[in-house]
Amino acid sequence: MDSFNRWMVFLNDILWHNYVLYAILATxxxxxxxxxxxxxxxxxxxxxxxxxxxxxPADPGAINHFQALSAALSATVGLGNIGGVALAIALxxxxxxxxxxxxxxxxxALKMTxxxxxMLYRNTDDPDNPHGGTMWVAKKAFERMNPRFxxxxxxxxxxxxxxxxxxxxxxGNMFQAWNVGEITESYFGIPSVFTGIVMAILVALVIIGGxxxxxxxxxxxxxxxxxxxxxxxxxVLAVNVEHLPSMFVLxxxxxxxxxxxxxxxxxxxxxxxxxxxxxxxxxxxxxxxxSSPIAHSAAKxxxxxxxxxxxxxxxxxxxxxxxxxxxxxxxxxxxxxRGPDTVYAAPPAVIEMSxxxxxxxxxxxxxxxxxxxxxxxxxxxxxxxxxxxNTGNDRHRLNGVVRLVNGQPIIEWEAFESEVEPALAxxxxxxxxxxxxxxxxxxxxxAPGLGKWLVTLTVWLFAISTxxxxxxxGEQGMVYLAGQRSVLPYKIVYCALIIVATMGLLNTxxxxxxxxxxxxxxxxxxxxxxxxxxxxxxxxxYHNYVERLQAGKMGPDHPKPSIDDVVSGxxxxxxxx
Length: 577
Prior knowledge:
By secondary structure, this protein is of the alpha+beta class. The protein has helices spanning about 1-15, 20-35, 40-55, 65-75, 80-90, 95-120, 135-145, 150-190, 190-205, 210-240, 245-255, 270-285, 290-295, 305-310, 315-335, 435-445, 450-480, 485-500, 510-550, 565-570; strands at about 340-345, 350-355, 355-360, 365, 380-390, 395-405, 410-415, 415, 425, 430. The strands form 2 sheets. Strands 1, 4, 5, 6, 7, 9 and 10 form a 7-stranded antiparallel β-sheet that branches. A 3-stranded antiparallel β-sheet has the order 2-3-8, with no helix packed on it.
């Protein structure tokens, strides 16, 4: 398994190289300029479209614009919004937030373009059950360009579907279930596998009904879960309102200059903040990955660009709203640069294990000011050693783990490579809380217990919503590869894997994360070139649509339906129904 993980890490280093991130950002900027800042159309016309003013029951498709957006959002608004943002700030500093905003903005143009292409090439042979996504774009576009290249399009589509299924099973399913099981067991002592069984049943009840039920559930669930999370965030910000001005100063300073070390934060350069902000935003909103177009392709419309405009709202909601609330809560409460949980009275010795490899002598852990040490609890301390190119100083984190030996907590420290003899930068020991746990800690600092209940609830809701939408993405990949008859066996396996992920059989924070990175990376490598190759078609269709819209040649021919009808999809029923 170690050799497998090393191979996965090697592939991830290639697929997610910094230059790949720069290329994605450049593609987003290209389509932002090419669309003449189409983000403005998404933020104005897009809201009117999802309100149901343009929904027509006679158009091909299965769900309305609001439900399509909700289904796509339910896949993107997930644990990355809670845990991924916390990781970006913990490692990249406040400046990472600014670059998340930038990527969220250009991601709107990316998302709009890839969805327009998916809508232009979607398969509507069955108008009530359309199929769309990068695989269909590749298959049909290559065939139209030259029939001799049809095999190449089919091959690219097949590769995309295989990696789509890898991402579906790992990041979209098992990793979500594992995280929920771990958090629930940590807070409430409920065995993780029980959580997996409950989640599998809930997911099965939804996905067995297909995209119409997924759209209906997502339409109800997504607004509720985001409202709960944002209301909790508003409360925390209100409690810490005096810190807001200085917090925004930190964000903009950290985006363009080095952020100094402070407490748990060991420092960060502007370049490091840029990379972590980009990575977290791209992982969260999935812009350019080619997954969301699969959900949007189910929208009932005869105007391909209209759903593309709606899709442009997705990164705005996911990154510029939900991720921002997580970031502001973490920064305003100060958990990102918190003080140590305990301090060595007499610092242990730094010893050399072999030439250039160091560690701290294992020894008793100092008593905590609150609570007690747990067996296996991860911790870290801060060393000063060789220059750290990521922080702009000489500080480094050294991880360790607490072991209870005859009831006595002992800290075992990892090895640390350095050509310079390290020394303890301070005698503090920090609880190594990352991801969703750090976000929960931020909420708890404003009201004890708020993080425990709010973050656990939102993690459940975010994870379930992610799993039901990703199940549809995988389903469409199976339809492309093996036909409609493969769907039911796929759904059974999909639900069973939820339980497997919570049984403790896999080191899911390593293996599944590596597999997810490879899956999404290959999807990007398939999708971005197709966007660049066919982007001209998408932009011509987009500008034609905008010209007709601004000339008053199209518009809603019916009043706004009720919000309840839009959310439930009843506004799509024909009068005879």
